[in-house]
Amino acid sequence: MIEIFNLQKVYGTQMALSVDNLKIAKNDFVGLVGNNGAGKTTMLSLILDLIEPTKGYVTSKLIKVSDSDEWKSYTGSFLNEGFLIPFLSPIEFFEFIGSLHGKNSADIKDFLEENEQFFKQDAFSGKYIRELSAGNKNKIGILASFLSKPEILILDEPFSNLDPSSQSWLKSKLKALSNEGVTILISSHDLKHVTEVCNRILLLEDGHIVKDTNTSNETLIELEQYFDI
Ligand SMILES: Nc1ncnc2c1ncn2[C@@H]1O[C@H](COP(=O)(O)OP(=O)(O)OP(=O)(O)O)[C@@H](O)[C@H]1O
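Above: inputs. Below: predicted complex with adenosine-5'-triphosphate.
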């Protein structure tokens, strides 16, 4: 579904990412792990055509992401606050994003009811997105990425800043989406979460993929050894 060809991103003299070839197949649920600065966000940003590669390219369904807008209609994503609109209320934001995907106010109401354990509306009432806590902003972005019922979902550190019950809800939700056939790519610093939900783990070190493995009972221990914890 997604393929990377000789992809490099260089900042000054620093190689932020260098991946010769990577295939992410339909229905893969990939977890990207690595130390701070390893290149996780750079890789996700390149896949989403948010930054220009120094070399190489990315395809989605065999079409270069930099040459086409087609992939945008079947790809949901949330990397950071820059994906939000701070002066809107959460509902206004969902309605705006929903309108881009042909959804009306009633559809948004149903969507929020379906996800009400994650998005407890009372906690958000009367506030603009700019006034929300980091975790609640994260929830808005994650939910908005689900709105188009994407075939591919790309999330950068989705568990960060979430309270334990929201983390648990999100794990179940992502597993359910994966079971429905959605191709998922997430980054995370939480090795337990990522090995629990993902069926494939990519370990990045200094911009290079140093491990690409299917998740097994040993994966968590191996990763803990790698990170020396
Ligand atoms: N705009 C930029 N200008 C210069 N260097 C950058 C820029 N963006 C990223 N980098 C560098 O590229 C490298 C990879 O950064 P990246 O944000 O992809 O890491 P990461 O794995 O997502 O880290 P973290 O876990 O801290 O979020 C880092 O050394 C970072 O300093």
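The helical segments are 40-47, 90-100, 105-114, 134-146, 164-179, 191-197, 219-226.
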